[in-house]
């Protein structure tokens, strides 16, 4: 079995664990009493319009503002490997992971770390990033819509996208530098 297939299988298994969690959560929401539901027909129609996320398919594009108020889109990084990292400043494991993301971003010219902060104020995120001395790209998912689109149910959650924009898979939970580097090397070996 070649390395790319092995990486895709590992990432797919991790993604399936996250999907299982989401399905379980959705089932528990469906068991609420009828008077507790706030769902309307329009919300259901809107949910149907959200793109499907599938390993081996094009990663859903998104556009968010960075800390300098400039719009940044995933498609801006075609030609590079992208590590999309969903995180929050209050997340202990995100905090532990950040220096490794910084190191990976600095050491690899063919990689972009795209850190998507979920539902926090620009000021909170900016202070955190400045205090940590991080300089990878940070964008703000103020409404949490991109996190929902990518089924990020816990933080941190990371996804890998190849140079052509294909979603290779995701890892729910914190990664260490060695794990990130191994996945990156496997992606490169199978380009």
Automatic annotation (TrEMBL):
Entry-linked SUPFAM superfamilies: Thioredoxin-like
GO molecular function: antioxidant activity; oxidoreductase activity
InterPro entries: AhpC/TSA (IPR000866), Thioredoxin-like_sf (IPR036249), Thioredoxin_domain (IPR013766), Thioredoxin_ResA/DsbE_sf (IPR050553)
Transmembrane segments: 6-23
Signal peptide bounds: none
Pfam families referenced in this protein's UniProt entry, alphabetically: AhpC-TSA
Ranges of residues in domain Thioredoxin: 53-189
Source organism, top-level taxon: Bacteria
Keywords assigned: Membrane, Transmembrane, Transmembrane helix
PANTHER family the record matches: THIOL:DISULFIDE INTERCHANGE PROTEIN DSBE, THIOREDOXIN-LIKE PROTEIN HI_1115
Name of the protein in question: Peroxiredoxin
Organism expressing this protein natively: Paramaledivibacter caminithermalis (strain DSM 15212 / CIP 107654 / DViRD3)
